[in-house]
Amino acid sequence: MTTVATISADIGKCQGYANCMVQAPDHFDLDDDGKVEIVNDAPSDIELDEVRAAVDSCPVRALALSS
Amino acid sequence: MSDRTVSATAVADVTASMDLGWQLPAELYSDPQHYEREREAIFHRAWQFVCREEELGKPGDYVTTVLGDVPVVVVRDKDGSLQAHVNVCLHRLHPVAEGSGCKKILQCRYHGWTYGLDGSLKSAPRSQDEPGFDKSAMVLQSVAVDTLGGLVFANPDPNPTPLAEFAAPAEDLMVRHGIDLGGWDLTGTFTYEVAANWKLFAENALECYHCPLVHNGTFGTAFHTESETYICDNYVNVATQVAPVAQAFPGESRASDDLGGFRMLFLWPFTYVSVDDYTGTVARMQPTGPHTCRFVVDTFARPGTDPKVLEESLAMYDETFMEDKAVVTAQQIGYHSGRVPQGRLMTNSESSIAMFQRRTWQALTGEAG
């Protein structure tokens, strides 16, 4: 299992749509303010497609995946 | 009494007539105003089947359903408790969950309002720009939820009579008759859209007086349906029906006397749970209007059942329900005609219809019936 990417979030942009939580519930959560909280920023190879879909699903483009 | 022509408007008159073997007034099976009264007095206050407990085994597991006409989502919360909410977003009243599955949150797909499994609003896009928006005050409408005999029930009324009290003595009866679907395989769901008032289909399933004629070749061939052998017992909100096997399915090697036969428990007003030697069903009525209803039947296979016997058994039940749909649809025309104000009940062979009608009349009027 090799970590190949890191998730980051722009909290200022986040509106709490929660699409990321729906797509990748093991990596994203919502904090008490309704903003995204990254609970695991290092997806494994087998998790990468799911996390990429979660990042791409954000309506306000508050998420990024960097390698 | 054969020339009886009751106007059926006075509650006391109807109550007295039911004591003499007459049925609920026919107008109650087609009148839109009466249907609205039923929504308030029955649909929104009754315990109704949701799923088996094992369908909600782990945190985040959820099931959506319709209780009467109220959309509901039942979920296993993070702390292991069962939670039930009206499945309607507090924004634009879209569902917050669809189908079934496992989720950490309930997200409305329309505008993205997102709720915790406990029903509290976690986020609403752009809400920080909305003056006076108090997220903490926004919680999905609550629904009561409880379990009985391995089955999950919910009630749109958030403060109902406790299920164990409402359904007494259902738990004992389920044990006595071996009605336990734990570990059985869910094989599918039959859904029947019926052009008849929900009470007609509900009542049809509470008597087997019609079985020798309507179900000759299906249920009436598989099981004994004579009055001496088809045993109906009635309680306040519960009824049971038990019938021995008459003709075993091809492929069944055991003698008929060694089989358990048909056993069914009814919980007023909507839920029927049955088992036989191969198949289990949980059926429920969903009223969809004064003249229409939906009959939904989850089917289960007893562990170890021969697949060919199971297929024959499921086909028998499906055909039986189609036969029921045909007669009930034809009845609706008669009920709507207004020409027969009250039908005469056969109180021995149809004792559970009497129980159903008494209970329904009581819910509507407060009269014992």
Describe the protein.
The complex is a heterodimer of chains A (67) and B (369). Helix content of chain A is 21%, strand content 21%. Chain A has two helices and four strands. In chain A, the strands form two sheets. A two-stranded antiparallel sheet of chain A has the order 1-4. The radius of gyration of chain A is 11 Å and the shape is globular. Chain B is of the alpha+beta class and 369 residues long. Chain B has helices at residues 11-19, 32-43, 163-166, 170-176, 198-204, 211-214, 219-222, 307-337, 351-365, and strands spanning 48-52, 61-67, 70-76, 82-86, 100-102, 105-107, 114-116, 121-123, 142-148, 151-155, 185-194, 231-234, 238-243, 262-267, 271-275, 279-289, 292-301. Residues 1-8 of chain B have low confidence and may be disordered. The chains are: A alpha+beta (67), B alpha+beta (369). Chain A binds chain B through residues 15-19, 21-22, 25, 29-30, 34-35, 59, and chain B through 60, 103-105, 107, 112, 114, 122-127, 135.
